[in-house]
Amino acid sequence: MKIYLDIETIPGQSEELKEEIANSITHPGSMKKPETIAKWEKEQKPQAVEDAWRKTAFKGDQGEIICISWAVENEPPEVVMRDLGGSERDMLETFFAQVMQSIPRGRHPGIEWVGHNVKDFDLRFIFHRAVILGVQPPFRLPHDARPGSEFVYDTMTAWAGWKDRISLDALCKALGIATKGTELGGEEIDGSKVWDFVKAGRVCDVATYCMADVERVRAVYKRMNFINTEEADQKAA
Question: Quick one: CA dihedral 142, 189, 195, 89, positive or negative?
Answer without folding.
Answer: negative
